[in-house]
Design brief:
The complex is a heterodimer.
Chain A: E1 3-6, E2 10-12, E3 18-25, E4 33-39, E5 45-51, E6 58-60, E7 68-73, E8 78-83, E9 92-99, E10 107-108, E11 112-116
Parallel strand pairs in A: 2-11
Antiparallel strand pairs in A: 1-3, 3-8, 4-5, 4-9, 5-6, 7-8, 9-10, 9-11
Chain B: E1 4-7, E2 10-13, E3 19-25, E4 34-39, E5 46-50, E6 54-55, E7 63-68, E8 71-76, E9 86-91, E10 100-101, E11 105-109
Parallel strand pairs in B: 2-11
Antiparallel strand pairs in B: 1-3, 3-8, 4-5, 4-9, 5-6, 7-8, 9-10, 9-11
The chains are: A mainly beta, B mainly beta.
Chain lengths: 118, 110
C-alpha cells in the first residue's frame, strides 16, 4: 500500500533553516511527482512546490522562491523540503503529497509540525 | 495566480440533508483541473474529487463534483455523521504551476 512517512516535529529559532523528509513506499517513487503543502495553525492549505523524482526538476510557488528547495534521493525513495530564513510566520504543519496525475494528491504524509520561536 | 473563493464559509446542516459547496476561481481553470479535499482535525486532507467531477478511489457516491471554467460545486447528497469536516477546493491547472487552494468551507452539525 502507498505510504508517505515524514520526519518528526521540529523547533527552530528565527533565521534558522529546516529540512523535512518524506519517505515513499508501496509504489514506484520515480513515477509520480511529490508536492509540498503547508498549513498554519487554524488556517488553510498553501502550495509550496513540487519535484519530479525521475528528473529532479522542480517548480516553486512565487511566494517561496529563493527560500525553499525540494530535492530527492531516489536510492531511498525520499523527498526533502528545505526552508531557510525562518520566521514565526513559517510555523505550520508541512505535508508531502503524491501527485498521480496532473496535480491532485491521492496520498499524503502524516504532516510535520515546524515551530519557529525564539 | 488563480484565487479561489469558497462559499459559504460555514454550512450548518443536519445528518441526511443535502450539502452544496461552491468554489469560484478568479480566472478559468484550465482543463477543469480542480479537486476537492475533506479534512478532519489532526488529519491530512483526503482527496474526494479530481478533474472537477471524477470521484477518487473509495469515495462514496454521495459525493459528486461538477462545474467548469470558473464555477465549481461539490455536492454531498445526504450527509452522514462522518462528513462533518472542512472542505477545500484546489486548482492545479495553472502553467507555469502556481497551484492554489480555496480558504475552505466548514460543514458542521446544526
Amino acid at each position: 500500500q502507498v505510504q508517505l512517512v515524514q520526519s518528526g516535529t521540529e523547533v527552530k529559532k528565527p533565521g534558522a533553516s529546516v529540512k523535512v523528509s518524506c519517505k515513499a513506499s508501496g509504489y514506484t517513487f520515480t513515477a509520480s511527482y511529490i508536492h509540498w503543502v503547508r498549513q498554519a495553525p487554524g488556517q488553510g492549505l498553501e502550495w509550496m512546490g513540487r519535484i519530479n523524482p525521475n528528473s529532479g526538476g522542480t517548480d516553486y510557488a512565487q511566494k517561496f522562491q529563493g527560500r525553499v528547495t525540494v530535492t530527492r534521493d531516489t536510492s531511498i525513495s525520499t523527498a526533502y523540503m528545505e526552508l531557510t530564513s525562518l520566521t514565526s510566520d513559517d510555523t505550520a504543519v508541512y505535508y508531502c503529497a503524491r501527485d498521480p496525475r496532473y496535480g491532485d494528491y491521492d496520498f499524503w504524509g502524516q504532516g510535520t509540525l515546524v515551530t519557529v520561536s525564539s | 495566480e488563480i484565487v479561489l473563493t469558497q462559499s459559504p464559509g460555514t454550512l450548518s446542516l443536519s445528518p441526511g440533508e443535502r450539502a452544496t459547496l461552491s468554489c469560484r476561481a478568479s480566472q478559468s481553470v484550465s482543463s477543469s483541473r480542480l479537486a476537492w479535499y475533506q479534512q478532519k482535525p489532526g488529519q491530512p486532507p483526503r482527496l474526494l474529487i479530481y478533474d472537477a467531477s471524477t470521484r477518487a478511489t473509495g469515495i462514496p457516491d454521495r459525493f459528486s463534483g461538477s462545474g467548469s471554467g470558473t464555477d465549481f460545486t461539490l455536492t454531498i447528497s445526504s450527509l452522514e455523521p462522518e462528513d462533518f469536516a472542512v472542505y477545500y477546493c484546489h486548482q492545479y491547472g495553472s502553467s507555469p504551476p502556481e497551484f492554489t487552494f480555496g480558504p475552505g468551507t466548514k460543514v458542521d452539525i446544526k
